[in-house]
Amino acid sequence: MSSAQQVRRGRFITLEGIDGAGKSTHLAFIRDWLANRDVDAAFTREPGGTPLGEKIRELLLAPDTVVSLDAEALLAFAGRQQHISEVIEPALAAGRWLVSDRFTDSTYAFQGGGRGVPFERIRALEEWVQRGLQPDLTLLFDLPLEVAAGRMSGTRQLDRFEQEAADFHQRARDAYLRRAAAEPQRFAVLDASRGIDEIQADIATHLRHLLERR
């Protein structure tokens, strides 16, 4: 196959934010936006995305799961390695766009910021598992804790992370914002306390810029 015939590598987009930030609300918009522009895209999530990953998700989110801090981080990366090898890399190599609801930034936020696992341990796992793979665009849906908590209140049974105290979620939010500040070329920080139309207008702008870079 000549260089002209080679498949152009796909784009990798991740959605991040504390629980209650509204990521799920905007996935359908992103799906429609890409489809309307004939972009071949796959959608996935973490924890999860593969049969093994979904089993790990059940363990990590179940309110009655008892797990050490290090084991929690290791489980997240075990699922991630399977996700990368089985779903993410094949999609990108085939030229598809891959949109994931959460990726490694969540581990830095929840296990690193929230739980207190040293960031250098997470970084070592990241380097081992990802081998340089990073998202092309990370949409960080940011909002105050009290707004996020209000959105989740009474909507459903909360999972193990959603049940954590406010200081846990504040540390997670702070970790997210520190990572965004350190990698402004990758992150787009969106004020998720605004109306849906305003947020999605911003999402469209960032997707358009990524599309134009193809």
TrEMBL record:
InterPro entries: P-loop_NTPase, Thymidylate_kin-like_dom, Thymidylate_kin_CS, Thymidylate_kinase
EC number: 2.7.4.9
Enzyme class: transferase
Binding site for ATP: 17-24
Gene3D superfamilies hit by this protein: P-loop containing nucleotide triphosphate hydrolases
Entry-linked Pfam families: Thymidylate_kin (PF02223)
Thymidylate kinase-like domain ranges (all copies): 15-203
Keyword Membrane: no
A cellular component annotation (GO) from this entry: cytosol
Sorted UniProt keywords: ATP-binding, Kinase, Nucleotide biosynthesis, Nucleotide-binding, Transferase
HAMAP family: Thymidylate_kinase
PANTHER family: THYMIDYLATE KINASE (PTHR10344), UMP-CMP KINASE 2, MITOCHONDRIAL (PTHR10344:SF4)
Family: Belongs to the thymidylate kinase family.
Its biological purpose: Phosphorylation of dTMP to form dTDP in both de novo and salvage pathways of dTTP synthesis.
NCBIfam families named in the record: DTMP_kinase (TIGR00041)
Name recorded for this polypeptide: Thymidylate kinase
Organism per entry: Chromobacterium phragmitis
Gene: tmk
